[in-house]
Specification:
Blueprint (H helix, E strand, L loop, with lengths): L2 H4 L14 H13 L1 H18 L2 H13 L1
Amino acid sequence: GGIPELVEDKKNGFLFNPGSIDDLVKKLEYFIENPTAAKQMGLAGREIAQSKFTLREMVANYQRLYKN
């Protein structure tokens, strides 16, 4: 459900079709062969998570959810 909200393909991670083991293996091999890119994607992912899931943002989301 929330994965497309957080992962931008090739920016802060990789998306692949569920059940596609070959595709998953290719993505993991890329990280093994490109540790700098893996680190950059990890940092970008952390940045997105920290911006979208601050305490203030989470409280606002819960308030919207329960007010409706």
